[in-house]
Amino acid sequence: MRIHPALAGRSCYHRYEIAPGVFTPGTHLEIDPGKCLDELGVPRELSGWRVLDIGAWDGPYSFELERRGAQVTALDVQDPDISVFNEVKRILNSSARYVRGSVYDARIEELGTFELVLFAGVYYHLKSPMLALQHIRPLLNDNGWLFIEGAAASDYLGQRLAATLGLPKSRAAEVTAAIDALPLSYFDTEERIYPHWSNWFFPTTHCLEVMLRDSGFRDVKLSLQTNAMYKYKGRRLMGQAKADPAMPDPAEQRHECPIWQAETLSVEDVLKARLLVNDAAGDAHSGPIGALRRVAGKMKRRLLG
Ligand SMILES: C[S@@+](CC[C@H](N)C(=O)[O-])C[C@H]1O[C@@H](n2cnc3c(N)ncnc32)[C@H](O)[C@@H]1O
User: Fold this and answer.
1) What is the pLDDT of residues 123-151, one digit of tens each?
2) CA 147 from centroid of its chain's CA atoms
3) Ligand 1 binding site (Cβ under 6 Å of any ligand atom)
4) Is 71 helix (H, G, I), strand (E, B) or coil?
5) Nearest to 122 by CA among 107, 111, 109, 136
6) Domain ranges of the chain
7) Residue 155's CB: how many other CB atoms inside 10 A?
8) How far is the CA of 17 from the centre of ligand 1 (A)?
9) Which atom of ligand 1 is nearest to the CA of 29?
10) What is the pTM of this model?
11) Cα gap 45→27, rounded to integer Å
12) Residue 291 pLDDT level (bands cut at 50, 70, 90)
Protein backbone atom coordinates (compact mmCIF):
# COMPACT_ATOMS: atom_id res chain seq x y z
CA MET A 1 0.00 0.00 0.00
CA ARG A 2 1.38 3.41 -0.86
CA ILE A 3 0.15 6.99 -0.55
CA HIS A 4 -0.42 8.85 -3.82
CA PRO A 5 2.68 11.03 -4.42
CA ALA A 6 0.51 14.15 -4.95
CA LEU A 7 -0.78 13.66 -1.39
CA ALA A 8 2.59 13.05 0.26
CA GLY A 9 2.95 15.04 3.47
CA ARG A 10 -0.82 15.63 3.67
CA SER A 11 -3.21 13.99 6.12
CA CYS A 12 -6.93 13.34 6.08
CA TYR A 13 -9.59 11.24 7.83
CA HIS A 14 -10.34 8.36 5.41
CA ARG A 15 -7.74 6.07 3.92
CA TYR A 16 -9.20 4.78 0.66
CA GLU A 17 -7.88 3.50 -2.64
CA ILE A 18 -7.82 6.00 -5.49
CA ALA A 19 -5.86 3.87 -7.98
CA PRO A 20 -4.80 0.22 -7.76
CA GLY A 21 -2.58 0.00 -4.67
CA VAL A 22 -2.52 3.79 -4.23
CA PHE A 23 -4.31 5.40 -1.26
CA THR A 24 -5.22 8.68 0.40
CA PRO A 25 -3.17 9.49 3.54
CA GLY A 26 -6.06 8.83 5.93
CA THR A 27 -5.10 8.53 9.58
CA HIS A 28 -8.41 7.53 11.21
CA LEU A 29 -10.48 5.13 9.14
CA GLU A 30 -9.43 2.78 6.36
CA ILE A 31 -12.41 1.86 4.21
CA ASP A 32 -13.42 0.28 0.94
CA PRO A 33 -16.06 2.78 -0.28
CA GLY A 34 -17.56 0.31 -2.77
CA LYS A 35 -18.12 -2.32 -0.10
CA CYS A 36 -19.57 0.30 2.28
CA LEU A 37 -22.12 1.51 -0.27
CA ASP A 38 -22.99 -2.08 -1.25
CA GLU A 39 -23.75 -2.91 2.38
CA LEU A 40 -25.96 0.14 2.63
CA GLY A 41 -27.89 -0.99 -0.45
CA VAL A 42 -26.88 1.85 -2.80
CA PRO A 43 -27.42 0.69 -6.41
CA ARG A 44 -24.25 -0.22 -8.33
CA GLU A 45 -25.54 1.39 -11.52
CA LEU A 46 -26.33 5.08 -11.14
CA SER A 47 -25.94 6.39 -14.67
CA GLY A 48 -27.91 9.58 -15.14
CA TRP A 49 -28.76 9.92 -11.43
CA ARG A 50 -28.13 13.19 -9.64
CA VAL A 51 -26.72 12.32 -6.24
CA LEU A 52 -25.94 14.45 -3.18
CA ASP A 53 -23.32 13.25 -0.68
CA ILE A 54 -23.90 15.14 2.58
CA GLY A 55 -20.87 15.06 4.88
CA ALA A 56 -18.60 14.13 1.98
CA TRP A 57 -15.41 15.21 3.79
CA ASP A 58 -12.38 13.85 1.87
CA GLY A 59 -14.63 12.25 -0.72
CA PRO A 60 -14.57 8.41 -0.49
CA TYR A 61 -18.29 8.04 -1.21
CA SER A 62 -18.58 10.97 -3.63
CA PHE A 63 -15.97 9.49 -5.96
CA GLU A 64 -17.40 5.96 -5.62
CA LEU A 65 -20.88 7.29 -6.49
CA GLU A 66 -19.39 9.02 -9.52
CA ARG A 67 -17.60 5.78 -10.48
CA ARG A 68 -21.08 4.17 -10.46
CA GLY A 69 -22.25 6.69 -13.05
CA ALA A 70 -23.86 9.41 -10.92
CA GLN A 71 -23.55 13.14 -11.36
CA VAL A 72 -22.34 14.01 -7.86
CA THR A 73 -22.64 17.04 -5.62
CA ALA A 74 -20.72 16.88 -2.35
CA LEU A 75 -21.79 19.03 0.60
CA ASP A 76 -19.73 19.59 3.73
CA VAL A 77 -18.66 22.34 6.11
CA GLN A 78 -14.99 21.38 5.62
CA ASP A 79 -12.58 23.25 3.35
CA PRO A 80 -12.03 20.88 0.37
CA ASP A 81 -8.46 22.15 -0.10
CA ILE A 82 -7.61 21.07 3.44
CA SER A 83 -9.59 17.81 3.51
CA VAL A 84 -7.84 16.62 0.27
CA PHE A 85 -11.20 16.41 -1.57
CA ASN A 86 -10.00 18.84 -4.23
CA GLU A 87 -6.64 17.12 -4.69
CA VAL A 88 -8.27 13.67 -5.12
CA LYS A 89 -10.80 15.23 -7.49
CA ARG A 90 -7.90 16.52 -9.58
CA ILE A 91 -6.10 13.14 -9.49
CA LEU A 92 -9.25 11.28 -10.59
CA ASN A 93 -10.18 13.92 -13.15
CA SER A 94 -13.58 13.94 -11.44
CA SER A 95 -16.52 16.18 -12.30
CA ALA A 96 -17.98 16.05 -8.78
CA ARG A 97 -19.11 19.45 -7.57
CA TYR A 98 -18.19 20.44 -4.01
CA VAL A 99 -20.38 22.91 -2.14
CA ARG A 100 -18.96 24.12 1.14
CA GLY A 101 -21.80 24.70 3.58
CA SER A 102 -24.05 23.26 6.23
CA VAL A 103 -26.97 20.92 5.69
CA TYR A 104 -28.97 23.42 7.78
CA ASP A 105 -28.57 25.96 4.95
CA ALA A 106 -29.12 23.51 2.09
CA ARG A 107 -31.40 25.06 -0.53
CA ILE A 108 -32.73 23.87 -3.89
CA GLU A 109 -31.74 27.21 -5.45
CA GLU A 110 -28.07 26.46 -4.78
CA LEU A 111 -27.90 22.68 -4.92
CA GLY A 112 -30.71 21.62 -7.25
CA THR A 113 -32.72 18.44 -6.73
CA PHE A 114 -31.61 14.84 -6.57
CA GLU A 115 -32.70 11.26 -7.15
CA LEU A 116 -30.54 10.04 -4.27
CA VAL A 117 -29.09 11.60 -1.12
CA LEU A 118 -26.39 9.89 0.92
CA PHE A 119 -26.40 11.04 4.54
CA ALA A 120 -23.75 8.81 6.10
CA GLY A 121 -22.00 9.38 9.40
CA VAL A 122 -23.50 12.82 9.96
CA TYR A 123 -26.83 13.01 11.85
CA TYR A 124 -25.30 12.18 15.26
CA HIS A 125 -22.78 15.02 14.78
CA LEU A 126 -25.71 17.44 14.67
CA LYS A 127 -27.56 19.01 17.56
CA SER A 128 -30.66 19.39 15.40
CA PRO A 129 -30.92 16.32 13.16
CA MET A 130 -34.67 16.86 12.64
CA LEU A 131 -33.93 20.27 11.16
CA ALA A 132 -31.35 18.66 8.88
CA LEU A 133 -33.83 16.02 7.67
CA GLN A 134 -36.40 18.73 7.01
CA HIS A 135 -33.85 20.50 4.81
CA ILE A 136 -32.94 17.30 2.99
CA ARG A 137 -36.48 16.23 2.02
CA PRO A 138 -37.17 19.12 -0.44
CA LEU A 139 -33.84 18.40 -2.18
CA LEU A 140 -35.14 14.98 -3.22
CA ASN A 141 -37.54 14.36 -6.07
CA ASP A 142 -40.75 12.65 -4.96
CA ASN A 143 -39.93 8.99 -4.30
CA GLY A 144 -36.20 9.81 -4.42
CA TRP A 145 -33.94 7.74 -2.18
CA LEU A 146 -32.29 8.67 1.08
CA PHE A 147 -29.53 6.37 2.31
CA ILE A 148 -28.67 7.03 5.91
CA GLU A 149 -26.07 5.70 8.35
CA GLY A 150 -24.93 6.61 11.83
CA ALA A 151 -24.58 5.95 15.54
CA ALA A 152 -27.25 4.63 17.90
CA ALA A 153 -27.92 4.68 21.64
CA SER A 154 -29.59 1.29 22.04
CA ASP A 155 -26.58 -0.88 22.97
CA TYR A 156 -25.26 1.66 25.47
CA LEU A 157 -28.67 2.21 27.08
CA GLY A 158 -29.45 -1.52 27.12
CA GLN A 159 -26.21 -2.34 28.94
CA ARG A 160 -26.69 0.48 31.43
CA LEU A 161 -30.28 -0.40 32.20
CA ALA A 162 -29.51 -4.13 32.53
CA ALA A 163 -26.64 -3.31 34.94
CA THR A 164 -28.84 -0.92 36.94
CA LEU A 165 -31.51 -3.58 37.28
CA GLY A 166 -28.86 -6.13 38.29
CA LEU A 167 -29.82 -8.45 35.44
CA PRO A 168 -27.47 -11.21 34.26
CA LYS A 169 -25.54 -10.49 31.04
CA SER A 170 -27.75 -13.03 29.24
CA ARG A 171 -30.72 -10.62 29.64
CA ALA A 172 -28.91 -7.56 28.18
CA ALA A 173 -29.94 -8.31 24.59
CA GLU A 174 -33.59 -8.50 25.61
CA VAL A 175 -33.40 -5.14 27.41
CA THR A 176 -31.57 -3.57 24.46
CA ALA A 177 -34.23 -4.81 22.02
CA ALA A 178 -36.99 -3.33 24.19
CA ILE A 179 -35.21 0.04 24.32
CA ASP A 180 -34.49 -0.02 20.59
CA ALA A 181 -38.22 -0.37 19.90
CA LEU A 182 -38.98 2.89 21.74
CA PRO A 183 -38.65 6.35 20.13
CA LEU A 184 -35.81 7.42 22.45
CA SER A 185 -32.65 9.42 21.88
CA TYR A 186 -29.60 10.05 24.07
CA PHE A 187 -28.15 13.55 23.93
CA ASP A 188 -24.52 12.88 24.81
CA THR A 189 -22.71 15.91 26.20
CA GLU A 190 -20.45 13.75 28.39
CA GLU A 191 -18.85 11.57 25.69
CA ARG A 192 -20.37 8.43 27.18
CA ILE A 193 -21.02 6.66 23.89
CA TYR A 194 -18.21 7.96 21.65
CA PRO A 195 -15.15 9.64 23.15
CA HIS A 196 -15.31 12.87 21.19
CA TRP A 197 -17.20 16.09 21.83
CA SER A 198 -18.61 16.30 18.29
CA ASN A 199 -21.10 13.45 18.82
CA TRP A 200 -24.43 14.65 20.20
CA PHE A 201 -27.52 12.83 19.13
CA PHE A 202 -27.86 9.04 19.49
CA PRO A 203 -31.31 7.68 18.57
CA THR A 204 -32.76 4.18 18.82
CA THR A 205 -33.87 2.50 15.61
CA HIS A 206 -37.49 3.40 16.27
CA CYS A 207 -36.57 7.00 17.05
CA LEU A 208 -34.75 7.49 13.74
CA GLU A 209 -37.66 5.77 11.98
CA VAL A 210 -40.27 8.18 13.33
CA MET A 211 -37.95 11.16 12.79
CA LEU A 212 -37.67 10.20 9.13
CA ARG A 213 -41.42 9.69 8.74
CA ASP A 214 -42.14 13.02 10.39
CA SER A 215 -39.61 14.71 8.07
CA GLY A 216 -41.30 13.65 4.85
CA PHE A 217 -40.03 10.12 4.26
CA ARG A 218 -41.86 6.82 3.88
CA ASP A 219 -40.97 3.16 3.32
CA VAL A 220 -38.33 3.56 6.02
CA LYS A 221 -36.15 0.47 6.39
CA LEU A 222 -33.47 0.61 9.06
CA SER A 223 -31.33 -1.99 10.76
CA LEU A 224 -28.97 -1.90 13.72
CA GLN A 225 -25.82 -3.79 12.81
CA THR A 226 -22.05 -3.60 12.51
CA ASN A 227 -20.90 -2.32 9.14
CA ALA A 228 -17.93 -1.63 6.89
CA MET A 229 -18.40 2.15 7.18
CA TYR A 230 -17.51 1.88 10.86
CA LYS A 231 -15.10 -1.05 10.51
CA TYR A 232 -17.49 -3.43 12.32
CA LYS A 233 -16.51 -1.79 15.63
CA GLY A 234 -19.99 -1.42 17.09
CA ARG A 235 -23.58 -1.58 15.89
CA ARG A 236 -24.75 1.37 13.79
CA LEU A 237 -28.04 2.38 12.27
CA MET A 238 -28.20 2.02 8.51
CA GLY A 239 -30.87 1.91 5.88
CA GLN A 240 -32.98 3.75 3.39
CA ALA A 241 -36.19 5.71 2.97
CA LYS A 242 -38.13 7.25 0.11
CA ALA A 243 -39.18 10.88 -0.23
CA ASP A 244 -42.92 10.94 0.49
CA PRO A 245 -44.82 12.81 -2.27
CA ALA A 246 -47.47 13.71 0.32
CA MET A 247 -44.89 15.75 2.31
CA PRO A 248 -42.77 17.67 -0.21
CA ASP A 249 -41.73 20.33 2.31
CA PRO A 250 -41.91 19.19 5.94
CA ALA A 251 -40.58 22.58 7.07
CA GLU A 252 -44.05 23.84 6.23
CA GLN A 253 -45.66 21.51 8.73
CA ARG A 254 -48.11 23.42 10.83
CA HIS A 255 -48.46 20.88 13.63
CA GLU A 256 -45.24 21.61 15.53
CA CYS A 257 -47.18 24.01 17.73
CA PRO A 258 -50.81 25.08 17.35
CA ILE A 259 -51.16 28.81 16.86
CA TRP A 260 -54.23 30.13 18.63
CA GLN A 261 -56.15 32.28 16.17
CA ALA A 262 -58.40 34.34 18.45
CA GLU A 263 -60.53 35.50 15.51
CA THR A 264 -61.49 31.93 14.64
CA LEU A 265 -62.44 30.87 18.17
CA SER A 266 -65.83 29.22 18.39
CA VAL A 267 -68.25 29.73 21.26
CA GLU A 268 -67.29 26.22 22.43
CA ASP A 269 -63.59 27.15 22.44
CA VAL A 270 -64.34 30.22 24.54
CA LEU A 271 -66.45 28.32 27.03
CA LYS A 272 -63.77 25.61 27.24
CA ALA A 273 -61.15 28.30 27.86
CA ARG A 274 -63.31 29.77 30.67
CA LEU A 275 -63.52 26.36 32.25
CA LEU A 276 -59.77 25.91 32.00
CA VAL A 277 -59.18 29.31 33.55
CA ASN A 278 -61.61 28.66 36.36
CA ASP A 279 -59.98 25.29 37.04
CA ALA A 280 -56.42 26.58 36.93
CA ALA A 281 -54.59 27.25 40.14
CA GLY A 282 -52.20 30.16 40.63
CA ASP A 283 -52.24 33.83 39.79
CA ALA A 284 -55.37 34.54 37.76
CA HIS A 285 -54.38 38.07 36.68
CA SER A 286 -50.86 37.79 35.29
CA GLY A 287 -48.80 35.41 33.12
CA PRO A 288 -50.40 32.94 30.71
CA ILE A 289 -53.43 32.32 32.92
CA GLY A 290 -54.18 36.02 33.04
CA ALA A 291 -53.70 36.33 29.28
CA LEU A 292 -55.99 33.39 28.66
CA ARG A 293 -58.59 34.85 31.00
CA ARG A 294 -58.48 38.22 29.18
CA VAL A 295 -58.78 36.60 25.70
CA ALA A 296 -61.59 34.35 26.86
CA GLY A 297 -63.45 37.26 28.42
CA LYS A 298 -63.03 39.44 25.34
CA MET A 299 -64.17 36.67 22.98
CA LYS A 300 -67.11 35.82 25.18
CA ARG A 301 -68.26 39.45 25.14
CA ARG A 302 -67.82 39.62 21.36
CA LEU A 303 -69.56 36.32 20.61
CA LEU A 304 -72.30 36.25 23.22
CA GLY A 305 -72.98 39.96 23.42
C1 LIG B 1 -17.88 11.34 10.68
S2 LIG B 1 -17.74 12.30 9.24
C3 LIG B 1 -18.57 11.25 8.06
C4 LIG B 1 -17.86 11.25 6.74
C5 LIG B 1 -18.42 10.25 5.75
N6 LIG B 1 -19.70 10.67 5.24
C7 LIG B 1 -18.51 8.88 6.35
O8 LIG B 1 -19.61 8.36 6.49
O9 LIG B 1 -17.48 8.30 6.70
C10 LIG B 1 -18.94 13.61 9.47
C11 LIG B 1 -18.90 14.64 8.36
O12 LIG B 1 -20.05 15.47 8.50
C13 LIG B 1 -19.64 16.80 8.27
N14 LIG B 1 -20.62 17.71 8.90
C15 LIG B 1 -20.78 17.97 10.22
N16 LIG B 1 -21.75 18.86 10.41
C17 LIG B 1 -22.22 19.19 9.18
C18 LIG B 1 -23.23 20.07 8.72
N19 LIG B 1 -23.94 20.83 9.56
N20 LIG B 1 -23.46 20.15 7.39
C21 LIG B 1 -22.74 19.40 6.51
N22 LIG B 1 -21.76 18.54 6.90
C23 LIG B 1 -21.51 18.44 8.21
C24 LIG B 1 -18.27 16.87 8.91
O25 LIG B 1 -17.54 17.98 8.44
C26 LIG B 1 -17.68 15.55 8.46
O27 LIG B 1 -17.09 15.66 7.21
Assistant:
1) 999 999 999 999 999 999 999 999 999 99
2) 10
3) 54-55, 57, 61, 75-78, 102-104, 120-122, 125-126, 229
4) strand
5) 136
6) 2-252, 262-304
7) 20
8) 20
9) 9
10) 0.87
11) 30
12) low
